[in-house]
Design a protein that fits this description.
This is MarR family winged helix-turn-helix transcriptional regulator. It comes from Hydrogenophaga bisanensis. There is one protein chain. Helix content is 63%, strand content 8%. The protein has 150 residues and is mainly alpha-helical. It has a single domain (15-147), classed as Arc Repressor Mutant, subunit A. The longest helix is centred in the N-terminal third of the chain and has 23 residues, at 17-39. It is globular. The model has no long low-confidence stretch (mean pLDDT 94).
């Protein structure tokens, strides 16, 4: 006769996917903080720069969609980044309602200075790039399923 292990109690903290993601996110930002402090950036500012380094000249609304941030969070963040000299906000000449976000020369220079950030994360996580990519793909797939649920 084989004995089977009882099923885990799904109402414990360690069995909650949401808690695993939340606590992993907190641990991740702790790794990023000293790296970004050296660059004078906060984590949300770093995310904005990553999006703009991929595609400069995005609209505020497009940037908000890309980063999953509402305008109430994004607008003050962009104002601080503009004051720091990393971005410029300009009204779209074709549609005055739209605001375009462009990197300044200093914002573009930060990309070079930030090159070590992903490598430091790999070292801290003790993962190879393929493992990080697989985890990223899984979390993105989960996010997309949750956002597109019926």
């Amino acid at each position: 006769m084989t004995s089977r292990s009882p099923l885990p109690d799904i109402q414990t903290l360690d069995q909650q996917l949401c808690f695993a993601l939340y606590s992993a996110s907190l641990a991740m930002t702790k790794v990023y903080k000293p790296l970004l402090d050296q660059l004078g950036l906060t984590y949300p500012q770093y995310l904005v720069l990553l999006a703009l380094w991929e595609q400069d000249g995005q609209t505020v609304s497009g940037l908000g969609e890309r980063l999953y941030l509402d305008s109430g969070t994004l607008t003050p963040l962009l104002k601080r980044m503009e004051s720091a000299g990393w971005i410029e906000r300009q009204r779209d000449a074709a549609d005055e309602r739209r605001v375009l976000i462009h990197l300044t020369a200093e914002g573009r220079r930060l990309k070079t200075r930030a090159r070590q950030v992903p490598e430091c994360l790999l070292q801290a996580a003790r993962c190879d790039p393929q493992e990080v990519q697989a985890l990223t793909n899984q979390v993105q797939a989960l996010r997309n399923r949750l956002l597109n649920r019926p």
